[in-house]
């Protein structure tokens, strides 16, 4: 309702060409409401940004999705684009530019002030998905020989240009990071205290070439609002703040969910992605899974004689393979999530395997007992399975134990193996694990059936 009122007021003032009142009105709104207004009325994205103060325009622009950011840039005059690009924080500007084609990046970089251009080119020089791409050079750094009074005076003078003043960094004359402090540590001591007397040399830093996913884990473990970024020599290059990490974590989570669902990660919002590109993202895995499922028919063909002798075995094929696929999908999802949260590492593979062997046997036993009881009850009511009902029930029960055990082991170990090989564990998606277990589940089922029924039904 509020967004509708905002849109209506904006449309009225724009139609009346009352741009002075429009600017005042827009500047009075929350940044999130401005972003929502642009989302609801993308055709007027340029007009909305144009009528905001440059500070608030940059604040709104930085939280827009990339397609909307493109719409804004296309609608603005070159002078306004230059003003907006120079106002954006370096890390947000870099995140936007790295999504653009190289020719567009060259043109936009030309619009930057010399210092902002230098910073942007420096950040773009780091590997994609590295911490260096998202760090900002706007931070407060002080010297160890300063007093607390000098530190506070420096913060008052330069703090407005910093991304955050919650954390203050101590460097030497060559720029090496020596320590970091929360600002309250300076506020709670006498003003004549010298900085080096407060230092304990216990600090955590990131390397500019560290992977962004690894940085997320460090933030989670250290519970910090910002972390310093250093080079190989320990020189302080910039900082990464928690808001950037939350944004990256959300993107990584979305990407993992899409991969777990059996598709390539989408690099655009679903409704903004061209249909053919969306199909291309999905068809690859579907073809792989389809070819994999064709092996199921091959496996059943291998046991054609056994099925011909005991047709009743074919009745339980969907039950067997779906149980194995479900258990494998459960295990892979749990392990992928645990790895993403840093709860387990590659070195924990043996602990994971032991747990999954026990849980697989327990889960398989539960399903096996239910399957055995169901077969007995169904036969007592409808006389479906004949005189060998107990044997059939036993075969299905033991097969379920084996298939579910194999499913949990496959689902839990595959993400770890992929991680060890340097691949993304999320590619061991639930559909992929289910397809793998379908084929091997049939082999387990018919092997158990042949072992137990040989000389009786087979």
UniProtKB/TrEMBL annotation:
<dbReference type="InterPro" id="IPR046342">
    <property type="entry name" value="CBS_dom_sf"/>
</dbReference>
<dbReference type="GO" id="GO:0046872">
    <property type="term" value="F:metal ion binding"/>
</dbReference>
<feature type="transmembrane region" description="Helical">
    <location>
        <begin position="430"/>
        <end position="453"/>
    </location>
</feature>
<keyword id="KW-0460">Magnesium</keyword>
<dbReference type="Pfam" id="PF00571">
    <property type="entry name" value="CBS"/>
</dbReference>
<feature type="transmembrane region" description="Helical">
    <location>
        <begin position="315"/>
        <end position="336"/>
    </location>
</feature>
<feature type="transmembrane region" description="Helical">
    <location>
        <begin position="357"/>
        <end position="378"/>
    </location>
</feature>
<dbReference type="Pfam" id="PF01769">
    <property type="entry name" value="MgtE"/>
</dbReference>
<keyword id="KW-0813">Transport</keyword>
<keyword id="KW-1003">Cell membrane</keyword>
<dbReference type="InterPro" id="IPR036739">
    <property type="entry name" value="SLC41_membr_dom_sf"/>
</dbReference>
<dbReference type="InterPro" id="IPR006667">
    <property type="entry name" value="SLC41_membr_dom"/>
</dbReference>
<feature type="domain" description="CBS">
    <location>
        <begin position="199"/>
        <end position="255"/>
    </location>
</feature>
<dbReference type="InterPro" id="IPR006668">
    <property type="entry name" value="Mg_transptr_MgtE_intracell_dom"/>
</dbReference>
<dbReference type="InterPro" id="IPR038076">
    <property type="entry name" value="MgtE_N_sf"/>
</dbReference>
<dbReference type="InterPro" id="IPR000644">
    <property type="entry name" value="CBS_dom"/>
</dbReference>
<keyword id="KW-0479">Metal-binding</keyword>
<dbReference type="GO" id="GO:0015095">
    <property type="term" value="F:magnesium ion transmembrane transporter activity"/>
</dbReference>
<dbReference type="Pfam" id="PF03448">
    <property type="entry name" value="MgtE_N"/>
</dbReference>
<comment type="function">
    <text>Acts as a magnesium transporter.</text>
</comment>
<protein>
    <recommendedName>
        <fullName>Magnesium transporter MgtE</fullName>
    </recommendedName>
</protein>
<dbReference type="InterPro" id="IPR006669">
    <property type="entry name" value="MgtE_transporter"/>
</dbReference>
<comment type="subunit">
    <text>Homodimer.</text>
</comment>
<keyword id="KW-1133">Transmembrane helix</keyword>
<feature type="transmembrane region" description="Helical">
    <location>
        <begin position="390"/>
        <end position="418"/>
    </location>
</feature>
<keyword id="KW-0812">Transmembrane</keyword>
<dbReference type="GO" id="GO:0005886">
    <property type="term" value="C:plasma membrane"/>
</dbReference>
<comment type="similarity">
    <text>Belongs to the SLC41A transporter family.</text>
</comment>
<feature type="transmembrane region" description="Helical">
    <location>
        <begin position="283"/>
        <end position="303"/>
    </location>
</feature>
<keyword id="KW-0472">Membrane</keyword>
<keyword id="KW-0129">CBS domain</keyword>
């Amino acid at each position: 309702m509020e967004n509708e009122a905002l849109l209506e007021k904006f449309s009225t003032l724009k139609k009346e060409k009352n741009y002075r009142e429009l600017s005042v009105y827009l500047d009075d709104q929350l940044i999130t409401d401005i972003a929502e207004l642009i989302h609801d009325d993308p055709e007027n994205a340029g007009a909305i940004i144009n009528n905001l103060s440059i500070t608030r325009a940059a604040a709104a622009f930085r939280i827009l999705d990339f397609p909307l950011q493109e719409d804004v840039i296309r609608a603005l005059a070159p002078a306004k684009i230059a003003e907006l690009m120079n106002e954006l924080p370096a890390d947000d500007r870099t995140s936007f530019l790295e999504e653009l084609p190289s020719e567009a990046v060259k043109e936009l970089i030309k619009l930057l002030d010399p210092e902002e251009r230098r910073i942007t080119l420096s950040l773009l020089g780091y590997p994609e998905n590295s911490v260096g791409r998202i760090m900002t050079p706007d931070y407060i750094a002080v010297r160890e020989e300063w007093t607390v009074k000098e530190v506070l005076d420096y913060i008052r003078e330069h703090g407005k240009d910093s991304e955050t003043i919650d954390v203050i960094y101590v460097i030497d004359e060559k720029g090496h990071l020596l320590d970091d402090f929360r600002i309250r540590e300076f506020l709670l001591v006498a003003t004549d205290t010298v900085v080096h007397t407060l230092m304990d040399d216990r600090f955590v830093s990131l390397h500019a070439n560290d992977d962004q996913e690894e940085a997320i884990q460090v933030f989670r473990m250290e519970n910090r609002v910002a972390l310093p970024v250093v080079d190989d020599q320990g020189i302080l290059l910039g900082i990464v703040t928690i808001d950037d990490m939350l944004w990256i974590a959300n993107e990584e989570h979305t990407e993992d969910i899409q991969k777990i669902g059996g598709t390539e990660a989408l690099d655009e919002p679903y409704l903004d992605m061209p249909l053919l590109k969306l199909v291309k993202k999905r068809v690859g895995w579907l073809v792989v899974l389809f070819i994999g499922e064709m092996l199921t028919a091959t496996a059943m063909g291998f046991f054609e004689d056994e099925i011909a002798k005991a047709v009743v075995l074919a009745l339980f094929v969907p039950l067997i393979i779906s149980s194995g696929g479900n258990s494998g999908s459960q295990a892979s999802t749990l392990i992928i999530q645990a790895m993403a949260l840093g709860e387990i590492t590659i070195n924990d593979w043996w602990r994971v395997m032991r747990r999954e062997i026990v849980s697989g046997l327990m889960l398989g036993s539960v399903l096996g007992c239910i399957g055995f009881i169901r077969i007995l009850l169904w036969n007592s009511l409808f006389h479906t399975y004949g005189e060998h009902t107990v044997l059939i029930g036993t075969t299905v029960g033991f097969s379920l134990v084996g298939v579910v055990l194999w499913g949990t082991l496959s689902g839990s170990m595959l993400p770890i193996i992929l991680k060890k090989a340097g691949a993304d564990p999320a590619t061991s998606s639930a559909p992929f694990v289910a397809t793998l277990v379908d084929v091997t589940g049939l082999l387990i089922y018919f092997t158990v059936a042949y072992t137990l029924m040989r000389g009786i039904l087979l």
